[in-house]
């Protein structure tokens, strides 16, 4: 009997405040979708770091004839065969080095054509303009400075470049986007909480006569509050459900069916990461409105 009464009161409250309940559902859905998306983006960045940092190399670019005429670092001329052999031998002796690969100018030209063949300047380049280089794989990518300090001033070396530094710019951009999403999520969450509190107060005010009668007949505080708390929890759960739908649709349509086909250089997270976040989104969608309603009712009903 009591359960039937509580359920009937929930239905009455939702019907009386249909517009505000809809606003709560939408705001909760958007805020939790941004929250889930931020968690997934953070996991995506971590996955990309693990994938790319394992593949990055330190590149030691050697001077060629073109550089000897224009680059101050190559004023002593193009790298000689003896200099190349000495650099390779010294690299192989270093404990921080895992492997060393030499790339000729012809190989560099071939790789450039494969990656940037559609570039307007690709047709004007010739193999002799490309730089020879050593691709150095480190056991620990953070030890780049050891290689840089040892070889950057060597005769025949134009520049020592750390690919990890180039990737850091991309990861910083992604982290900035993630922080922006979290900021918008926080704003939407505040809006959702304010809507929940106002909806509960309006609902309690519209039923103040019923709650007054329940006080007179000896109903407990929690019994009076339960219908209002469950209304907020139900609306929040609906919003969380819509947020889960948005996350699933984003993974299916945006990631799997578009980005995965157009961006080949990124290893995207899979369904296991998305499905692991859905229970958390649902739990927050259920508990957050219920807690907000409980706090609002304690102050408003004074029971």
Automatic annotation (TrEMBL):
Primary location class: membrane
Keyword Coiled coil: no
InterPro entries linked: ABC3_permease_C (IPR003838), FtsX (IPR004513), FtsX_actino (IPR047929), FtsX_ECD (IPR040690)
Compartmental location: Cell membrane
Pfam families reported for this sequence: FtsX, FtsX_ECD
Keyword terms: Cell cycle, Cell division, Cell membrane, Membrane, Transmembrane, Transmembrane helix
Residue ranges constituting the ABC3 transporter permease C-terminal domain according to the UniProt record: 184-301
Top-rank taxon, per record: Bacteria
GO biological process terms, semicolon-separated: cell division
Membrane topology: Multi-pass membrane protein
FtsX extracellular domain mapped to chain residues: 56-160
Membrane-spanning residues: 21-41, 179-200, 221-254, 274-297
Function: Part of the ABC transporter FtsEX involved in cellular division.
Family: Belongs to the ABC-4 integral membrane protein family. FtsX subfamily.
Quaternary structure and partners: Forms a membrane-associated complex with FtsE.
Name of this chain's protein: Cell division protein FtsX
Organism field: Streptomyces syringium
Lineage, opening ranks: Bacteria, Bacillati, Actinomycetota, Actinomycetes, Kitasatosporales
């Amino acid at each position: 009997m009591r359960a039937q009464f509580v359920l009937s009161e929930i239905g009455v409250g939702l019907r009386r405040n249909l517009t505000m309940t809809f606003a709560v559902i939408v705001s909760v859905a958007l805020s939790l979708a941004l929250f889930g998306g931020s968690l997934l983006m953070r996991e995506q960045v971590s996955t990309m770091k693990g994938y790319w940092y394992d593949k990055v190399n330190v590149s030691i670019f050697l001077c060629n004839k073109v550089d000897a005429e224009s680059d101050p670092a190559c004023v002593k001329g193009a790298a000689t065969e003896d200099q190349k052999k000495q650099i390779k031998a010294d690299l192989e002796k270093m404990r921080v080095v895992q492997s060393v690969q030499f790339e000729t100018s012809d190989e560099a030209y071939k790789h450039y054509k494969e990656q940037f063949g559609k570039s307007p300047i690709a047709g004007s380049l010739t193999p002799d303009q490309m730089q020879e280089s050593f691709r150095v794989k480190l056991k620990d990518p953070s030890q780049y400075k050891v290689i840089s300090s040892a070889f950057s001033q060597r005769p025949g070396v134009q520049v020592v470049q750390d690919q990890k530094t180039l990737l850091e710019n991309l990861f910083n951009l992604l982290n900035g986007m993630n922080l922006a999403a979290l900021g918008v999520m926080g704003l939407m969450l505040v809006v959702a909480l304010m809507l929940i509190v106002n909806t509960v107060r309006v609902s309690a005010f519209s039923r103040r006569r019923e709650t007054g009668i329940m006080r007179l007949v000896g109903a407990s505080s929690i019994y009076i509050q339960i219908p209002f708390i469950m209304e907020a929890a139900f609306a929040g759960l609906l919003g969380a459900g819509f947020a889960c739908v948005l996350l699933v649709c984003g993974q299916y349509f945006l990631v799997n069916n578009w980005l995965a086909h157009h961006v080949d250089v990124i290893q995207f997270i899979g369904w296991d990461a998305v499905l692991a976040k859905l229970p958390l989104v649902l739990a927050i969608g259920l508990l957050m409105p219920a807690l907000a309603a409980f706090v609002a009712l304690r102050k408003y009903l004074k029971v």
